[in-house]
Amino acid sequence: MKVGDAKPANFSGGPLLLVGFSFLLIIGFPRLAPDWWYFSIVGWLVLAASWGTSVDVEGWTLRLRYAFGRLAINVPLSEIEDVKVVSRLERAVLIREFPGLYILITASVLFVFLDLLLLPSGLLEGYYLGDIGLIFFGLIYLAVMSLPFSRTNIALLFGVLDLLFAALLMELKMGYVDPVSVLVLGIFGLLFVAEYYRKDYVVITTQRKKYSLMSEEPEAVLRVLLRGVANVQAP
């Protein structure tokens, strides 16, 4: 049985390892081995595969599907110890629940920022814009997922400030601000914020790990999970 509109997040376990591996391919290979730049394309595919596609309850097992539905993580309902909803206004709680995710993203942003600072002048603008884009989305991701913004417009204001910071980096490293790049970053940043403010999170704690589900109707997901756990525990 499909659990509503829930989709598993890549905040822990194997999916988080996929995120880390994708960052290595996207960020590391083009810098450590420039001739192998095409590995960064594989990295984007790995990153896409780390996102969940659906959540199902089959018998006494909760199945979290990733990698375009081809990879399933099986969570026995009998191992679930706690289930709770984390609203979009309480996302700072997720830092405590899934610290590995934030350590990974923060380290990646710092690495890319250092790389941008060390890039010499006179290179093709793609070298600079790639780093600036990663910094822009890394910062807005950390902010939206960590800070308990009470309203969407406050998050959008942070996005505008982040965009101005990206424009400043362009001016400092390229000598000018590319309006097309600013427009593209602004559009995708807006879509990013709008998408994440549509969903809340259901955090599942088991005997060994924690998992997170994204849903626009977390209460419905919570009812299904609690009903399944209750059925398993019933004599």
Brief description of this entry?
By secondary structure, the protein is an alpha+beta fold. It is built from eight helices and seven strands.
Description:
The protein contains eight helices and seven strands. The protein folds into two domains: 1-88 and 200-210 and 217-235, PH-domain like, CATH 2.30.29; 98-198, no CATH class. 57% of the residues lie in helices and 17% in strands. It starts with 6 loop residues before the first strand and ends with a helix. A four-stranded antiparallel sheet has the order 1-7-6-5. The mean pLDDT is 83. Helix 1 (13-32) packs parallel to helix 4 and helix 4 (99-118) runs antiparallel to helix 5 (125-146). With 235 residues, the protein is of the alpha+beta class. Strand 2 and strand 3 (61-66) form a beta hairpin. The protein is elongated.
Indicate the topology:
Blueprint (H helix, E strand, L loop, with lengths): L6 E2 L4 H20 L6 H11 L4 E5 L2 E6 L4 E6 L3 E7 L6 H5 L1 H20 L6 H22 L5 H23 L4 H18 L3 E7 L3 E6 L2 H16 L2
Antiparallel strand pairs: 1-7, 2-3, 3-4, 5-6, 6-7
Helix pairs in contact: 1-2, 1-4, 4-5, 5-6, 5-7, 6-7
